[in-house]
Amino acid sequence: QLQLQESGPGLVKPSETLSLTCTVSGGSIDSHNYYWGWIRQPPGKGLEWIGSIYYSGRTYYNPSLKSRVTISVDTSKKQFSLRLSSVTAADTAVYYCARRTYYYDSSGHWLGEPFDIWGQGTMVTVSS
Amino acid sequence: DIQMTQSPSTLSASAGDRVTITCRASQSIGRWLAWYQQKPGKAPKLLIYKASSLESEIPSRFSGNGSGTEFTLTISSLQPDDFATYYCQQYNSLLTFGGGTKVEIK
Predict the structure, then answer these.
(1) Quick one: three-class SS letters along chain B?
(2) Which of A8, A18, A60, A108 is most buried when burial is the number of CB atoms within 10 A of its CB?
(3) Measured distance CA(A69)–CA(A60) in Å, rounded
(4) Are A62 and B95 inside 8 Å of each other by CB?
(5) Would the CA dihedral through B79, B90, B11, A93 be positive or negative?
(6) pLDDT digits (tens), chain A, 128 positions
Protein backbone atom coordinates (compact mmCIF):
# COMPACT_ATOMS: atom_id res chain seq x y z
CA GLN A 1 0.00 0.00 0.00
CA LEU A 2 1.37 3.37 -1.01
CA GLN A 3 2.61 5.57 1.82
CA LEU A 4 4.01 9.10 1.98
CA GLN A 5 6.46 10.42 4.55
CA GLU A 6 7.51 14.05 5.01
CA SER A 7 10.95 14.94 6.32
CA GLY A 8 12.98 18.07 6.96
CA PRO A 9 13.98 20.62 9.61
CA GLY A 10 11.38 21.42 12.24
CA LEU A 11 12.77 24.90 12.83
CA VAL A 12 13.61 27.55 10.23
CA LYS A 13 14.81 31.10 10.82
CA PRO A 14 12.87 34.08 9.44
CA SER A 15 13.94 35.16 5.93
CA GLU A 16 15.52 31.74 5.26
CA THR A 17 14.27 28.95 2.98
CA LEU A 18 12.10 26.11 4.22
CA SER A 19 12.97 22.77 2.58
CA LEU A 20 10.95 19.58 2.93
CA THR A 21 11.01 16.21 1.18
CA CYS A 22 8.26 13.65 0.71
CA THR A 23 9.30 10.04 0.17
CA VAL A 24 6.96 7.65 -1.64
CA SER A 25 6.97 4.00 -0.59
CA GLY A 26 4.89 1.00 -1.55
CA GLY A 27 4.25 2.33 -5.04
CA SER A 28 5.73 4.28 -7.92
CA ILE A 29 6.19 8.03 -8.14
CA ASP A 30 6.50 8.00 -11.94
CA SER A 31 3.06 6.65 -12.71
CA HIS A 32 1.24 8.56 -15.46
CA ASN A 33 -1.85 8.73 -13.26
CA TYR A 34 -0.64 10.78 -10.33
CA TYR A 35 0.22 14.31 -9.36
CA TRP A 36 1.94 14.91 -6.04
CA GLY A 37 1.11 17.86 -3.85
CA TRP A 38 1.97 19.92 -0.79
CA ILE A 39 -0.66 21.29 1.61
CA ARG A 40 -0.12 23.15 4.85
CA GLN A 41 -2.11 23.93 8.00
CA PRO A 42 -1.15 26.68 10.48
CA PRO A 43 -1.81 25.77 14.11
CA GLY A 44 -5.54 25.87 14.84
CA LYS A 45 -6.39 26.97 11.30
CA GLY A 46 -7.58 25.50 8.01
CA LEU A 47 -5.88 23.82 5.08
CA GLU A 48 -4.04 25.63 2.28
CA TRP A 49 -2.89 24.00 -0.94
CA ILE A 50 0.67 25.04 -1.84
CA GLY A 51 1.35 23.37 -5.16
CA SER A 52 1.56 20.12 -7.13
CA ILE A 53 4.01 18.32 -9.42
CA TYR A 54 3.88 15.55 -12.05
CA TYR A 55 6.67 12.98 -12.35
CA SER A 56 7.83 14.79 -15.51
CA GLY A 57 8.47 17.92 -13.46
CA ARG A 58 5.40 19.84 -14.59
CA THR A 59 4.17 22.01 -11.74
CA TYR A 60 1.31 24.28 -10.76
CA TYR A 61 1.20 26.51 -7.72
CA ASN A 62 -1.16 28.44 -5.48
CA PRO A 63 -1.01 32.00 -6.92
CA SER A 64 -0.75 33.46 -3.41
CA LEU A 65 2.52 31.57 -2.78
CA LYS A 66 3.86 31.17 -6.31
CA SER A 67 6.59 33.79 -6.03
CA ARG A 68 8.20 31.95 -3.09
CA VAL A 69 7.55 28.28 -3.92
CA THR A 70 9.53 25.69 -5.86
CA ILE A 71 8.46 22.06 -6.04
CA SER A 72 10.76 19.49 -7.64
CA VAL A 73 10.82 15.73 -8.14
CA ASP A 74 13.55 13.09 -8.09
CA THR A 75 12.07 9.89 -9.51
CA SER A 76 15.26 7.87 -8.87
CA LYS A 77 14.85 8.48 -5.14
CA LYS A 78 11.04 8.34 -5.25
CA GLN A 79 10.93 11.77 -3.67
CA PHE A 80 9.44 15.17 -4.33
CA SER A 81 10.46 18.32 -2.52
CA LEU A 82 9.18 21.71 -1.42
CA ARG A 83 11.21 24.88 -1.09
CA LEU A 84 9.57 28.00 0.36
CA SER A 85 11.76 31.08 0.42
CA SER A 86 11.78 34.21 2.59
CA VAL A 87 9.75 32.59 5.34
CA THR A 88 8.05 34.49 8.16
CA ALA A 89 6.15 33.43 11.26
CA ALA A 90 3.04 33.17 9.07
CA ASP A 91 4.62 30.13 7.38
CA THR A 92 4.61 28.20 10.65
CA ALA A 93 2.41 25.18 9.97
CA VAL A 94 2.06 21.46 9.66
CA TYR A 95 3.12 20.59 6.11
CA TYR A 96 1.53 17.60 4.39
CA CYS A 97 2.39 15.84 1.16
CA ALA A 98 -0.36 14.01 -0.70
CA ARG A 99 -1.27 12.17 -3.91
CA ARG A 100 -3.82 13.16 -6.54
CA THR A 101 -5.09 10.67 -9.09
CA TYR A 102 -5.68 11.71 -12.72
CA TYR A 103 -7.49 9.89 -15.50
CA TYR A 104 -8.92 10.35 -19.00
CA ASP A 105 -12.71 10.49 -19.17
CA SER A 106 -14.79 9.09 -22.03
CA SER A 107 -14.34 12.34 -23.96
CA GLY A 108 -10.58 12.25 -23.63
CA HIS A 109 -10.36 15.00 -21.03
CA TRP A 110 -7.52 14.71 -18.50
CA LEU A 111 -9.23 15.07 -15.11
CA GLY A 112 -7.96 15.08 -11.54
CA GLU A 113 -9.50 13.72 -8.37
CA PRO A 114 -8.90 15.17 -4.89
CA PHE A 115 -6.04 14.10 -2.63
CA ASP A 116 -6.66 10.48 -1.65
CA ILE A 117 -3.44 9.54 0.14
CA TRP A 118 -1.71 11.85 2.63
CA GLY A 119 1.48 11.77 4.66
CA GLN A 120 1.27 12.14 8.42
CA GLY A 121 2.49 15.74 8.26
CA THR A 122 5.51 17.50 9.70
CA MET A 123 5.47 20.60 11.89
CA VAL A 124 7.67 23.48 10.79
CA THR A 125 8.17 26.47 13.06
CA VAL A 126 9.61 29.73 11.78
CA SER A 127 11.44 31.45 14.61
CA SER A 128 14.79 32.99 15.39
CA ASP B 1 -9.47 32.64 -7.52
CA ILE B 2 -12.38 30.52 -6.30
CA GLN B 3 -13.31 31.06 -2.65
CA MET B 4 -15.02 28.35 -0.60
CA THR B 5 -17.22 29.26 2.38
CA GLN B 6 -18.39 26.66 4.88
CA SER B 7 -21.18 26.99 7.42
CA PRO B 8 -21.54 26.67 10.27
CA SER B 9 -17.98 26.98 11.57
CA THR B 10 -18.95 24.94 14.63
CA LEU B 11 -21.81 22.51 15.06
CA SER B 12 -22.87 20.98 18.39
CA ALA B 13 -24.70 17.69 18.10
CA SER B 14 -25.39 14.43 19.88
CA ALA B 15 -24.73 10.87 18.79
CA GLY B 16 -27.60 9.73 16.59
CA ASP B 17 -28.33 13.22 15.24
CA ARG B 18 -28.59 13.98 11.55
CA VAL B 19 -26.20 16.80 10.69
CA THR B 20 -25.69 18.84 7.56
CA ILE B 21 -22.75 21.06 6.63
CA THR B 22 -22.93 23.56 3.78
CA CYS B 23 -20.19 24.68 1.42
CA ARG B 24 -20.61 27.52 -1.06
CA ALA B 25 -18.30 28.39 -3.95
CA SER B 26 -17.72 31.94 -5.17
CA GLN B 27 -18.38 30.74 -8.73
CA SER B 28 -19.69 27.61 -10.36
CA ILE B 29 -17.46 24.57 -9.93
CA GLY B 30 -19.77 21.99 -11.50
CA ARG B 31 -19.54 18.93 -9.28
CA TRP B 32 -15.80 19.17 -8.68
CA LEU B 33 -16.08 19.17 -4.91
CA ALA B 34 -14.61 16.93 -2.23
CA TRP B 35 -15.19 16.52 1.50
CA TYR B 36 -12.53 15.56 4.04
CA GLN B 37 -12.65 14.60 7.72
CA GLN B 38 -9.79 15.59 10.00
CA LYS B 39 -9.18 14.52 13.58
CA PRO B 40 -6.73 16.31 15.91
CA GLY B 41 -3.10 15.56 15.08
CA LYS B 42 -4.03 13.56 11.98
CA ALA B 43 -3.99 14.14 8.25
CA PRO B 44 -7.29 14.81 6.47
CA LYS B 45 -9.16 11.77 5.19
CA LEU B 46 -11.07 11.86 1.91
CA LEU B 47 -14.76 11.06 2.37
CA ILE B 48 -16.51 12.19 -0.82
CA TYR B 49 -15.43 13.27 -4.31
CA LYS B 50 -17.34 14.60 -7.32
CA ALA B 51 -19.83 16.11 -4.85
CA SER B 52 -21.60 12.84 -4.07
CA SER B 53 -19.32 9.84 -4.74
CA LEU B 54 -18.38 7.96 -1.58
CA GLU B 55 -14.69 7.09 -1.25
CA SER B 56 -13.88 3.42 -0.73
CA GLU B 57 -14.54 2.10 2.78
CA ILE B 58 -16.34 5.24 3.94
CA PRO B 59 -19.58 4.41 5.80
CA SER B 60 -22.82 5.01 3.96
CA ARG B 61 -24.09 7.36 6.69
CA PHE B 62 -21.97 10.02 4.93
CA SER B 63 -23.51 11.54 1.84
CA GLY B 64 -22.85 14.54 -0.36
CA ASN B 65 -25.07 16.58 -2.61
CA GLY B 66 -25.07 19.69 -4.75
CA SER B 67 -23.67 21.23 -7.90
CA GLY B 68 -22.68 24.63 -9.20
CA THR B 69 -22.08 26.80 -6.15
CA GLU B 70 -23.90 25.09 -3.27
CA PHE B 71 -23.03 21.76 -1.70
CA THR B 72 -23.88 19.81 1.43
CA LEU B 73 -22.35 17.03 3.47
CA THR B 74 -24.84 15.05 5.55
CA ILE B 75 -24.17 12.53 8.28
CA SER B 76 -27.39 10.60 8.69
CA SER B 77 -26.80 9.33 12.24
CA LEU B 78 -23.80 10.80 14.01
CA GLN B 79 -21.48 8.21 15.54
CA PRO B 80 -18.91 8.87 18.31
CA ASP B 81 -16.12 8.46 15.75
CA ASP B 82 -17.58 11.28 13.62
CA PHE B 83 -16.77 14.12 16.01
CA ALA B 84 -14.10 15.88 13.97
CA THR B 85 -13.50 18.83 11.65
CA TYR B 86 -14.79 18.65 8.09
CA TYR B 87 -13.41 20.52 5.08
CA CYS B 88 -14.74 20.99 1.59
CA GLN B 89 -12.35 21.45 -1.35
CA GLN B 90 -13.00 22.56 -4.90
CA TYR B 91 -10.83 21.13 -7.68
CA ASN B 92 -12.48 22.74 -10.69
CA SER B 93 -9.81 25.43 -10.98
CA LEU B 94 -6.59 24.89 -9.06
CA LEU B 95 -7.43 23.82 -5.51
CA THR B 96 -9.14 25.66 -2.65
CA PHE B 97 -10.31 24.47 0.75
CA GLY B 98 -13.17 25.78 2.82
CA GLY B 99 -12.51 27.12 6.30
CA GLY B 100 -13.72 24.00 8.07
CA THR B 101 -16.65 22.94 10.27
CA LYS B 102 -15.96 21.49 13.69
CA VAL B 103 -18.56 18.94 14.78
CA GLU B 104 -18.46 18.79 18.56
CA ILE B 105 -20.33 16.90 21.25
CA LYS B 106 -23.41 18.74 22.52
Answers:
(1) CCCEEEECCEEEECCCCCEEEEEEECCCCCCCEEEEEECCCCCCEEEEECCCEECCCCCCCEEEEEECCEEEEEECCCCHHHCCEEEEEECCCCCEECCCEEEEEC
(2) A18
(3) 10
(4) yes
(5) positive
(6) 999 999 999 999 999 999 999 999 999 999 999 999 999 999 999 999 999 999 999 999 999 999 999 999 999 999 999 999 999 999 999 999 999 999 999 999 999 999 999 999 999 999 99
Which chain B residue has its CA at the smallest distance from A63's CA? Answer: B1
Pairwise CA distance, residues B103 & B19, whole Å = 9
Q: Are A60 and A5 in contact (CB under 8 A)?
A: no
For A116, the closest of B42, B46, B96 (CB atoms) is: B46
Give the Cβ contact number of residue A16 at 10 Å.
14
Distance from CA of A113 to the nearest CA of B (A): 7
The DSSP code for A2 is -
